[in-house]
Amino acid sequence: MTFQEQARRCPVVAILRGITPEEMLPVCEALRTAGIRLLEVPLNSPDALESIRHAAAKYHAAGELLAGAGTVLTAQNVRDVAAAGGRFIISPDANPEVIRETKRLGLVSIPGFFTATEAFTALRAGADYLKFFPAGKLGPGYVKDLKAVIKAPILAVGGVDTDNIAAFLDVCAGVGIGSALYKPGKTPAEIEQAAAVYAAAVR
């Protein structure tokens, strides 16, 4: 199942910053049970590629979850993620080299932007989605204004919570949620409970 199909089912990307390979499958299962199917493993997490490898091996063939990487800064990072089985690439910036390598390898490209100039730079390089970060400071109104000229799907990340998620999803194709879902030390049961709240909010 593609990123786009999973996002239509539940437009929440769980950002698993700091996760370890040992935690990965129990956390995946907690999120899957709650209905969240897109998992971002930031590359500054411990042994991030191994975590992606675990999720890809268990879930990708069945189409139950889709794992990708965040904090991807170089073309070599993209190649490493592709080799580990990751299916999408999320970056904090709009680096054309990273975007072009992502597309060359057949992965979904989701670079970060804050201004219209950055958004157009990313789109000219071939980006599929745009990650608006940090979203909470400027809010859904800023995205709505940008969409007058930017015709690509946008994911809002940073400062999205259960109070404003509906407003963001009125103008965005999805949202990224970090520590409200996962942070080191949270149990799978706590993660599933938090994820269920977000899954219900997007329904």
From TrEMBL:
NCBIfam families: PRK09140.1 (NF006600). GO terms for molecular function: lyase activity. Gene3D superfamilies: Aldolase class I. Keywords: Carbohydrate metabolism, Lyase. It holds the Pfam family Aldolase. Transmembrane segments: none annotated. This is 2-keto-3-deoxy-phosphogalactonate aldolase. Homotrimer. Coiled coil: none annotated. SUPFAM superfamilies: Aldolase. Belongs to the KHG/KDPG aldolase family. Pathway: Carbohydrate acid metabolism.
